[in-house]
Amino acid sequence: MTEERVLRADAARNRAALLAAATEEFAERGLEASVADIARRAGIGKGTVFRHFPTKDDLLAAVVLDRIEALSALAGSLLGAADAGAALLEFMDAAAGRQQQLDLSFLRESGAVNARLDEARASLFESIVALVERAKTAGAVRADVDGMDVILLMCAPNHVVSFVPDPSPELWRRYLGIIFDGLRPEGARPLPHPAPGAVTA
Amino acid sequence: MTEERVLRADAARNRAALLAAATEEFAERGLEASVADIARRAGIGKGTVFRHFPTKDDLLAAVVLDRIEALSALAGSLLGAADAGAALLEFMDAAAGRQQQLDLSFLRESGAVNARLDEARASLFESIVALVERAKTAGAVRADVDGMDVILLMCAPNHVVSFVPDPSPELWRRYLGIIFDGLRPEGARPLPHPAPGAVTA
DNA sequence: GGCTAAGCGGACCGGGCGGTCAACTTTGTA
DNA sequence: TACAAAGTTGACCGCCCGGTCCGCTTAGCC
Description:
homodimer; Tetracycline Repressor, domain 2; DNA-binding; Homeodomain-like_sf (chains A, B)
């Protein structure tokens, strides 16, 4: 099905550099990042970019696919955690932290072309829904929120923080904590929220 | 100081139509809105736009100024409300509701040019800080948040909702409620949040 | 009604964007 | 080492954007 062509050594090197540069550039400047800048950052010509990815959207899709698969792995491992509430928070923390300007990339559907991306996105979505359901039955979050709510809300901190000139590097995490507290059922409101990494470790 | 030139009748008419069109267009499409589209929507030529406002930024500034002044008036009247927590929530509700894509317009400082805008923005900021302080002393919100936090967080709902294909029209309000709950001090978490308009009415 | 200045509008300009292409270089194999 | 296929490149194209300009229209005063 997926016919992976064999790349020449230099081509593989360039492709890796390109993906790394694109990841950084998209993270910093969002969809505004220009292909020319990405090429320059990768140290290759603009034409080479389009040889590897026929359109800018395809390049973006490759970057997003990486992120989504990483998040999927994390979500999967968190599904086995004992504390469902802490697991959900840790997932939200990791997701919000790593995808800076790419925030809501999983929402934009690719017009039937990138079947693989859509599939990965759907799979991640399922895992998130499961995380949320577990947190709900554990009494850690309200009953009236669903997976989509969590996805949208966990993206909010980075989004708004991107507007302040030079934000303290932990500002987004403070806001995530506030939002997570808002998701708790009435009356359940522990003081600090646990440090990231505490659940899977 | 402010030397308001006298406009000819048709010019005044066009200016009004232009501002209305720009307000709608910016609200719908954010900063991406093009001057040509705004001109078309207003039923005037593109050149006329630039006669009234020398740059696109100036046009945006005029639209933003309108919004800021309206919000300032609201904030001022809410400062006298009995229930400081409800007053803050109502302000956040109104601010988030009316400024769709313009969300964080008050943050972007104009490079010393639009003194009037910067002044209005500073004044609004003061009022918001006062609203927040009152809510804090009333025990309605946590002690560890400030005016900027509230500004950023109240903008979050519209921001994230703009990513979902066709959102239910009240979705942003649900999210605002969640965020507001997250702002409450520990343990204080009433069930429903009051309907908008209940405080000033 | 006639005159003049204010206002109007669309063709036009420069710049940046995503994307193409044909000439050139590199890789890997026999 | 010779050579064909694979890969690279930057000049180039068309498009859209913000902004300019100048010939035309119109409002308002005498």
